[in-house]
Amino acid sequence: MSRRTLATVGVIALILLAGCSGTLSGAASEAPSSNSGSTIEVSGAGSASGEPNRAVVRVGVTATAEDAVTARQRLAENVSRMRTALTELGVGDEQIATEYYDVGRDYRPPRRDGEEPEVRYRASHDFEITLSDVERVGPVIDTAVGNGATSVDDVSFTLSAERRQRLEHRARRSAMTDARQKAETVAEAANLTVTGVHVVRVGGGSPRPSAVEYAATATPAADGGTDVESGPVDVVANVEVVYNATATGA
After folding, report:
1. CATH number of 54-158
2. For residue range 54-89, what is the model confidence (pLDDT) as tens digits?
């Protein structure tokens, strides 16, 4: 198998807007308050980056035969061989989960006019392998492909719950700082002074991953192995804050 270096960039978006009114994405507005002062409503965005410490590798095993029973048997043999090799590599059964399983007909066009289409049976079994050590992605791919896997469908990098929480905290603080700076800019232009926070609208405690973008370049190597390089994972937080404000000098 040729050596491949996959440079991966992941983005995890932390959506913190629930029941929000007004314009988001950096909007700032001044609104009258029911009391003697005014309010300034702004949205803030912040982010925090961290190196991924969890990887997910998705591989597939496929076998074909002239009948369904043989196709299934061949598939089972290849899957068993792959899982045994992964176990010897140190990948536990709890790290491997089935994503898809199917046995079906595979029609091939006839070679000559007037002949019936050729019917073969295809058996497929797709797996998701979760790794807590991102440095092991390359060896896991090589082991799987060398022992029965017929495809590597996806490699993604993410964060453990503990590291994600730390980045979420930093992203929220950054978003609040951004909101405060916007509010003070608006207040200055309107001859107002920010006096405090009236309302902070946040919600949605769980991060929601976005699509992961991949930039892959193949590089030759003497050992013929696979290298997978991960980029940083960004956690992005958005907040909406309503500040109290009074006329400057009042």
Report:
1. 3.30.70.2970
2. 999 999 999 999 999 999 999 999 999 999 999 999
